[in-house]
Amino acid sequence: MEQKPKRKNQQGLSRFQKIGIAVGMLFSLICIGILTYGLWELSRVEYVTGEKAPNRVEHILNVSLPNQAQYIDVAYGKWQNFPIKMRFSLPADVTELWLSDSGLCFDNLVETDTINLHLGYPNPDWWQLENVEKFVSDECGDDPYYKILIDQTDSEWWIIYIQVISS
Fold it and tell me: Residue 159: what pLDDT?
């Protein structure tokens, strides 16, 4: 008696091979989705304004803001080495007192014609350094590294821009 040859699947793939390919494709799609979400999440910028903004500034700088602080905004990326940017306004006389009492390392505020703050990402609407006419600035620290620019264009209310960079 002759044995009949085994029939091959006409498509050339067994059921297990098809299942393996489907599982592999599904796993690949899941990995791509996770990677895409992770990159999106890390590139996001958080913007804090309103009632939560003073607490965020105080937490980042580890100092208390004066009660007179107004127009407080914070922007920070979720990825390391993205600068944290913050801006708030204080009366001129309160600003000098706050800086001297704060313990921050800004000891050498000098008038200059060069804006030393990072203009790139994140770039919130309120980071308006192009409108600054008269200012003092300073840089200090190691990690974190601080940059400050105090817009003195208005003689009564100064706008304080602070950038914090840490690794």
Answer: 95
Q: How far is CA 24 from CA 12, 21, 34, 107, 124, in A?
A: 18, 5, 15, 60, 42
- pLDDT tens, position by position, 82-125: 788 999 999 999 998 998 888 888 888 888 776 767 666 667 88
> Would you list the DSSP string of the chain?
-PPPPPPPPTTS--HHHHHHHHHHHHHHHHHHHHHHHHHHHHH-EEEEETTHHHHHHHHHHTSPPPTT-EEEEEEEESSTTPPEEEEEEEEHHHHHHHHHHH--S----EE-SS--S--SSS--TT--GGG--SEEEEEEESSSEEEEEEE-SSSSEEEEEEEEE--
Between the alpha carbon of residue 44 and those of residues 26, 28, 38, the distances in Å are 27, 24, 10
Report pTM.
Answer: 0.72
pLDDT value at residue 17: 84
Q: Is the pLDDT of residue 42 over 60?
A: no
Residues 137 and 159 sit within 8 Å (Cβ to Cβ): no
Whether the CB-CB separation of 160 and 87 falls below 8 Å is answered with: yes
Q: Residue 95's CB: how many other CB atoms inside 10 A? A: 21
